[in-house]
From TrEMBL:
The chain crosses the membrane at residues 20-39, 51-71, 91-108, 120-139, 181-200, 206-226. This is Prolipoprotein diacylglyceryl transferase. Keywords: Membrane, Transmembrane, Transmembrane helix.
């Protein structure tokens, strides 16, 4: 739910949804923290954040630009609306694939140390998510707890505040990126139990699968790092 008053528009574009504001602020914080931490670890923070910025732009713009190919008449009739919210089937997947391909190419070009870059990006992502959560209200299951938020005639868990608190706590622990992903994914998965999920796949909602995937990525990275330490010790 948006925390901005409804009715804010600039021409055909609505500005009464705080979700895009939260995403923008979160991404700015993400880039700033990534740059600072990567420089502190001896890397080129400027180049890394430039790559991440281009990857984000590719991911966002690809499905919108593909709309001009998929439905040219409608898209060229309303170009601004298409660039703001245009989508095509599997467009986001194409954007993800192209963005990742660009990222891998730039990594080979600039020779970023993957372990350090991944560690920094993971921790900055957790902090960025906390910023987003503070900007966009997410109602959980109905509750009568004193800190519940009221929407209409019903009171709900302020799920976004729980998520922000967990993410900020994980970032404050100053653990590695792998630990941060593991704790973040597990924490978000547990908090998702306070939500109502009308659509599930094999018992979990798509967002829950994402949280589980992040936790597993963190776990597998930790296992891989532990194996490397054992091999070096041997």
């Amino acid at each position: 739910m948006s925390i901005l008053p409804s009715g804010l528009h600039l021409g055909p574009i609505a500005f009464d949804d705080s979700g895009w504001v939260g995403l923008l602020l979160a991404f700015i914080v993400f880039l700033f923290v990534t740059k600072r931490m990567f420089i502190r670890r001896g890397g080129d923070g400027e180049k890394l954040t430039d790559v991440l910025l281009v990857m984000a732009a590719v991911w966002v713009l690809t499905p919108r630009l593909l709309s001009f190919v998929y439905a040219p008449v409608e898209s060229f009739s309303h170009p601004i609306l298409t660039l703001v919210g245009g989508q095509v089937p599997f467009g986001q997947w194409w954007g993800t694939a192209i963005a990742l391909g660009y990222g891998f190419w730039q990594q080979r070009k600039h020779q970023f140390e993957l372990r350090v870059a991944g560690d920094v990006v993971a921790r900055a992502f957790v902090l960025g998510f906390a910023v987003y959560s503070l900007c966009y209200a997410v109602a959980g299951a109905p509750t009568n707890l004193p800190w519940a938020v009221t929407h209409g005639e019903q009171s709900y868990h302020p799920l976004n505040l729980y998520q922000a608190a967990v993410a900020l706590g994980i970032f404050a622990l100053r653990r590695s990126g792998a630990w941060s992903l593991l704790l973040f994914g597990a924490g978000m998965l547990l908090l998702s139990l306070l939500q109502v999920h009308p659509y599930t796949l094999f018992g979990l909602a798509m967002l829950q699968w994402l949280w589980l995937l992040l936790a597993l990525v963190g776990l597998f990275v930790l296992i891989g790092l532990a194996d490397q330490k054992v091999e070096k010790a041997a």
